[in-house]
Amino acid sequence: MTKAEESKTLVLPPKENELWNPVLSKTVVTGVKTFKMIPNKILGYLEENNILLRNPMDKRIPEPIRNRKLCIYDAYNDGYKDLFLSDDSRIEGAAVVGISPDRTKLLISDKILGILLSDKDYIFEPSEKENNCELYIYDLATDSSYKITEFLLRYAKTFNGVGWSDDGGYITYCLKRDEEKTYDFFVYDIAEKKTEKYTLSEEADKYSYIDLPKYSKEGQCIFFIGGGNSGSKLYKIDLTEEIPKVEWLADDVAFYNVLKDEKNIVFLNSLREPRTLKRGVYFLDIETKEIKTLSEYQTKNHSGYDISPDGNRIVYFYDCEGSIDVKVATLSGKGIKDSTTIYKMVNNPSDIWWRVLWNGNGTKVLLSSNKSMESSDELENYIIELEYK
């Protein structure tokens, strides 16, 4: 596999006519809801005002919800809900490894096996043979779940990452056969409830881990992050070839989304040691490998961006003099359009981490803060209500 020539970093804006959605609208902030919460790990922003939390620490949370791994917090009514109503004790100790793009379903594992790689993804460490991990889909509307995996004994030692396709139709997970230095990618079709397997053996020993595999909606390729001595890189596997071929796409990728046309990718860069890179959000042309800069900033304490459930908009952080702006823009074929600042924050490089997340229908943005999980201080969080005119 030959690495493509490095491309120069270009600056937006894109051309005026390169829009997927021809109906442009101006973003208007109609309200801001402020609430304080003892630090919890916020996993996602669901429908309306519901926020998915892991390991809740707040003493206000009633038992036994506080002792569960997961719960839902209603920010407007200041109430908590036990997420898992099932009698299946294996699911009660679950970890969320993915949320569907429409925020209506969770992909969960029945055991917490992994360490947090970035703010949205996991690397899974080896498990013992007697502790095989299974994956479930949890439907938030019905509070019900079903298992999608039947892991064989030979796969028990390594579980290398999971990704939900950006169109919401497929779940991809990767398992490594150590003795054969081979990675198997399993693609679960949610509508058909069936699984296909694709095997990668070409240069498989170059990856110390594989993370966030995603299946294309056309079924022609699988994207994934591969980690090694030279950092985390984004790759594509061409499934149209008789022997799947791996193609390098970009360096230093921590998290990514394949956009609606499947010709472009938005990604958040990883910060390697020594951390000479700025934290940034970038557009990647899959065919040409051209990279365009959407946003770069010095502080590492901002998580980058989130794509709206319909795939038409992006919310992201933007570095200004003396402040960090939270911006919303319309996505286009080669970049963005109509970028609007919806909130201004003081640029304080402290230990507070900030995230931006869309809700399920794209009408609200959660701006959340977090400190060390050992902190008992209540931190302010904001729900920004939006209209498009």
Task: Tell me what the structure shows.
Helices cover 1% and strands 51% of the residues. It has 1 helix and 31 strands. It has a 5-stranded mixed beta sheet with strand order 1-24-23-22-21, with no helix packed on it. The chain has a 4-stranded antiparallel beta sheet with strand order 2-31-30-29, with no helix packed on it. The protein starts with 8 loop residues before the first strand and ends with a strand. Residues 1-24 and 113-130 have low confidence and may be disordered.
- How much helicity do the residues have? under 10%
- Alpha plus pi helix count: 1
Care to count the β-strands?
31
- Neighbour order of strands in the largest sheet: 1-24-23-22-21
Summarize the structure.
With 389 residues, this protein is mostly beta strands. Helix content is 1%, strand content 51%. The protein has one helix at 89-92, and strands spanning 9-11, 27-37, 41-45, 50-54, 70-74, 79-82, 95-99, 105-109, 114-116, 122-124, 135-139, 144-147, 159-164, 170-177, 182-189, 194-200, 209-215, 221-228, 231-238, 245-251, 253-258, 264-269, 279-285, 291-297, 305-307, 313-320, 323-331, 336-346, 353-358, 364-370, 379-388.
